[in-house]
Amino acid sequence: MALATTFLSSANSFLSSSSSSSSSSSLFFRQKNNAMRQVSICRAFSESPSPSPSSPILTKRSLSISFITSFVFSLASRSNSSANAAILEADDDEELLERVKRDRKKRIERQGFISSSNKETGYLQDLVYKLSKVGQAIENNDLSTAGSVLGGSTNTDWVQKANIAFSKLSSSTEEKKQVDTFNSSLSSLISSVTGKDIESSKLAFVSSATAFEKWTTLTGLFGQLKGL
To answer: What are phi and psi of 135, to 5 degrees?
Structure first.
């Protein structure tokens, strides 16, 4: 028993001293770590560059250089945009000039073609005289004279010859459209004159004359036919 009691007492003393020693050791290491941390912090502060009086000036200078650079690049960009716009405008001018040249060439070719079509031009000149007489008669409410000039149908010789000229001298879709309008209006005109309908005759005559005038303008014949 005594031996056991002594052993336990010794064991307790050993554990107590070991605990004290361990506590002292832990305290020592904590103090050492704190000291090292403080040294590191101090070293970091001591090694960090101190603010230079010229730092704000350099910052302003950097900003100024950055602004000037941006401004220069902006001017260069605008200059390039202006140059590109000028190139595009020049291209547009060249394209317009080429279009004008092509149109002029077509007009010259058309005038030469018309000048060589004397027979067809004669048919159209006769058409102008016929329409002029019909218009005067309708204006005077003289449908009998208008009817005698028109001939009673679209199968008359002068109408057939006029359509021969139309067919030869019409090249564009719009020109052919005006020919169709003229023939349709002329048919209505003949029918109205035959039926003694003065108001319808006037409307049909205006429609016929308008379509023919548009056709001569499109083909370039407007200034070459007398009476228009």
So the answer is: -65, -40
In the predicted structure, residue 54 carries a pLDDT above the cut 50: no
Q: What angle do CA 94, 98, 99 make, to 5 degrees?
A: 115
Contacts of range 56-59, beta carbons closer than 8 Å, 24 or more positions apart: none
Confirm if 121 and 225 have CB atoms less than 8 A apart. Answer: yes
Structure tokens given for 81: 């945009």
- Tokens 């005109």 belong to residue: 189
CB 185 within 8 A of CB 204: yes
Residue 130, judged by CB atoms within 10 A of its CB (0-12, 13-18, 19+), counts as middle
pLDDT tens by residue, 87-131: 666 667 788 877 787 766 666 666 665 666 789 999 999 999 999
**What is the CATH code for 117-219?**
1.20.120.290
Q: What is the mean pLDDT of residues 47-55?
A: 47
Domain boundaries, the chain: 117-219
Answer yes or no: are the C-beta atoms of 215 and 170 closer than 8 Å: yes
- Using alpha carbons only, give the angle 171, 178, 189 rounded to the nearest 5 degrees: 140
* CA–CA distance, 224 with 124 (Å, rounded to integer): 10
- DSSP alpha helix (H) spans, the chain: 2-47, 55-115, 118-139, 143-150, 157-169, 173-194, 198-219
d(CA 25, CA 125): 131
CA separation for the pair 151, 132 (Å, rounded): 15
Question: Which candidate, 88, 84, 65, 87, places its Cα nearest to that of 76?
Answer: 84
